[in-house]
């Protein structure tokens, strides 16, 4: 007799209290085709989540609660994963940092261009890149074109917590058939609190009603069905963010004990660019970026990705 698939209570909650995005089935199919194509070509596939979720306070949303994340961790990690031979599904917050283009996200494009002929030139054919403003543009363009050529990146966008949760579930189910070749790298900053659809006011909350008191529910712990039911053979990494360094490792270990996934990357908000700890059930590796590394343009994501791709190797051949 065939075993019945497990339906967790989180599945029910997701369906009832979080609006299902209309394109979720279409996106799931795209992710499944992408994963099976790359797995058949001998590649591993990593699903990266990146950026912060948005939780609306009204259904015709004027105000919302946002989780902090620039998206840099996810975007730069995507580049290093592709450089290591992975195909990447990049589930990211709309308008957060994006692989390759992230290096000029703070630059006004018109400041990065100039006329080649100096004074007097004005036609489009005279416009060139100012290498002083964008010194690394040639390298980024080359990597970007290689990525496009190999169709190595599948970008998917979310804005709200509901979109994030449903799309992550769809991704887990879409990657499940490739088993241990799939990695989940959950770097997005996800809200712990939300207002269920049934309790959300439709219209803009009126300030004439006096001070606002909010009561929010706890977001279901999606890591649990992801690890147990949706993609049970995959290699799963979550991120733990704290502002108080003294509780960081304890929280990271607690997450590993609770969800029984493969690793937690633990970081503190202020030092996240220079220091993280990769915690597994058996090991604890500190990854550090020194001043010298910064001078040489070495980023911490290169070290995180190198650590995790080796661990994924061992996981597959165990
Ligand atoms: C992280 O800890 C990421 O490393 C950062 C990256 C969001 C700090 P940036 O995007 O920052 O480069 O600016 N992500 C996980 C954050 C999170 O919400 N984790 C939850 C928690 O710590 C568990 S999934 O409780």
TrEMBL record:
The record, for SUPFAM superfamilies, names: CoaB-like
- Stated EC number for the protein is 6.3.2.51
- What's its catalytic activity? (R)-4'-phosphopantothenate + L-cysteine + CTP = N-[(R)-4-phosphopantothenoyl]-L-cysteine + CMP + diphosphate + H(+); (R)-4'-phosphopantothenate + L-cysteine + ATP = N-[(R)-4-phosphopantothenoyl]-L-cysteine + AMP + diphosphate + H(+)
Q: For the DNA/pantothenate metabolism flavoprotein C-terminal domain, which residue ranges apply?
A: 44-97, 178-273
Please indicate which superkingdom the organism of origin belongs to: Eukaryota
Q: Name one GO biological process term.
A: coenzyme A biosynthetic process
Please name the top-level EC class of this enzyme: ligase
A Pfam family it matches: DFP
Q: Which GO terms describe its molecular function?
A: phosphopantothenate--cysteine ligase activity
Q: Which UniProt keywords apply?
A: Ligase
Q: Which family does it belong to?
A: Belongs to the PPC synthetase family.
Q: Which function does this protein serve?
A: Catalyzes the second step in the biosynthesis of coenzyme A from vitamin B5, where cysteine is conjugated to 4'-phosphopantothenate to form 4-phosphopantothenoylcysteine. Has a preference for ATP over CTP as a cosubstrate.
Q: List the PANTHER family hit by this protein, alphabetically.
A: CORNICHON-RELATED
Name the UniProt record assigns to this protein: Phosphopantothenate--cysteine ligase
Organism per entry: Liparis tanakae (Tanaka's snailfish)
What is the gene called?
PPCS
């Amino acid at each position: 007799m065939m075993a019945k698939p497990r339906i967790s209570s989180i599945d029910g909650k997701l369906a009832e209290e979080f609006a299902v995005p209309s394109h979720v089935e279409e996106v799931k199919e795209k992710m499944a085709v992408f994963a099976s194509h790359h797995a058949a070509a001998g590649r591993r596939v990593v699903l990266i989540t990146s950026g912060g979720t948005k939780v609306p306070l009204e259904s015709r949303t004027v105000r919302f609660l946002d989780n902090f994340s620039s998206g840099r961790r996810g975007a730069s990690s995507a580049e290093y994963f592709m450089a290591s031979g992975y195909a990447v599904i990049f589930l990211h917050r709309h308008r957060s940092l994006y692989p390759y283009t992230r290096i000029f996200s703070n630059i006004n494009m018109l400041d990065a261009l100039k006329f080649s002929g100096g004074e007097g030139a004005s036609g489009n054919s005279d416009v060139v890149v100012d290498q002083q403003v964008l010194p690394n543009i040639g390298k980024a363009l080359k990597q970007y074109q290689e990525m496009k050529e190999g169709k190595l990146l599948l970008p998917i966008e979310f804005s709200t917590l509901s979109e994030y949760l449903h799309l992550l579930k769809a991704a887990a189910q879409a990657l499940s058939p490739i088993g241990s070749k799939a990695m989940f790298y959950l770097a997005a900053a996800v809200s712990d609190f939300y207002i269920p659809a049934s309790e959300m006011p439709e219209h803009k909350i009126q300030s004439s009603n006096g001070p606002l008191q909010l009561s929010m529910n706890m977001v279901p712990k999606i890591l649990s069905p992801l690890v147990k039911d949706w993609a049970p053979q995959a290699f799963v990494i979550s991120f733990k963010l704290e502002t108080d360094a003294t509780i960081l490792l304890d929280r990271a270990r607690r997450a590993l004990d609770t969800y029984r996934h493969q690793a937690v990357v633990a970081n503190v908000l202020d030092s996240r660019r220079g220091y993280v700890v990769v915690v597994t059930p058996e090991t604890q590796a500190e990854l550090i970026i020194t001043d010298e590394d910064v001078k040489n343009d070495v980023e911490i994501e290169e070290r995180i990705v190198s650590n995790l791709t080796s661990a994924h190797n061992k996981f597959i051949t165990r």
